[in-house]
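One-letter codes give the sequence; the fold follows as tokens. Both lines appear below.
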Amino acid sequence: MKDIRLKSLINCDYGVSQSFVLFLLFVFHVLHFLITFHFPMEWTQTTVKLENGGAAPKMADHSDEQHSFRTITTAFIPFIGDDDSDDSGSEFVFIIEPTLLIDPHCLKIGEVIGEGSCSIVYEGLYNYQPVAVKIIQPIRASAISPEKKERFQREVTLLARLNHENIIKFIGASIEPTLMIITELMRGGTLQKYLWSIRPETPDLKFSLSIALDLSRVMTYLHSNGIIYRDLKPSNLLLTEDKQRVKLANFGLAREEISGEMTTEAGTYRWMAPELFSIDPLPVGCKKCYDHKADVYSFSIILWELLTNKTPFKGRNDIMVAYAVSKNIRPSLEEIPEDMAPLLQSCWAEDPNSRPEFTEVTDSLSNLLQSFVLKESSLPNMDDKTEEEEEEEEEKVKCTSNTSFSQRKREPKAGRHRNSSFCLKCCNNSCLSD
């Protein structure tokens, strides 16, 4: 109908050229095509509760957060490729139970939330539920070395069998198109980032003791199951959204403890136990004898950080840290509460046999936390006093002041120092006599 009207304008003698009218007709068709096929309006009906209990139609909410998630194929197809010329680990055969593997088509990838030396962690959606997705590097699975594949397989197997409230919850894994581990999403971030965010302030002592107690309990669980973690540090500890609990993540270096030799220099230098270092150069992959007490040493450095909010061995590079630790140099105890110092010193002892088991550490921390809570609850809260209690307090203060003044007038200077209970007794006697 509109075309007929436009064509009729051609025959009208309004001083408008025929070519200009044809141009308008062309523009009309282009706009009509774009609006119809390239900008469809989605008016999905959704129910919105109103104050009067009714309902009203609403446009579908396509937030920017939803649009930021992509499928695995869309996110990583440029990196995966088909070239297998450098596939050093292509002959590795995974031995992972099929029930532990997920369908990667049900997974979507969002923003990066963490990075490690061998992996990148993304926020994701699995079956529309928020998750954390750890992707082993490089992205192309066939290009990953056999050593990394074996570590990935060991981490998946360990996470699947562990069940503790302070261990990150395992959801599933995938070996194609890339190596991925899917776990619950911890929105509180790492303990390391939290400590950095409040510097130069130190955490509340109750918070520090609670976090340390959580960590000690989960390490007791691991060691009782014959597992040595080997990489305890604040960046591997994830906080809940309310910052009240902590969970252990990243089991890439964890393994079942054996009585023989294990790989040396497993972990991060600032938190590594001295028995894992060697002053003399060792070949890559060299093994040494050590046991689960290496985790106790790493725990002591984390506890020191919780109490001071400082970087251990600050200003020293990895080689200098290794040298200092091997020479029995430890972080300063100047700012550490007196009742906490003995625990730290025992946990970072040079001789692994002198370090306590985590069951003992848990008992010590429980007693320290209980003492702190009792001491905190025994302190008077001025805000909770009633008006009558405040008036009584004022009368006691006046009475104490008058009595103390009269006593000072009668006594020599050497006898003026009285404790608070003596003054209160004098006050009561004076008031009763009046």
Notes: Residues 12-16, 36-65, 403-434 have pLDDT under 50 and may be disordered. The chain is about 40% helix and 15% strand.
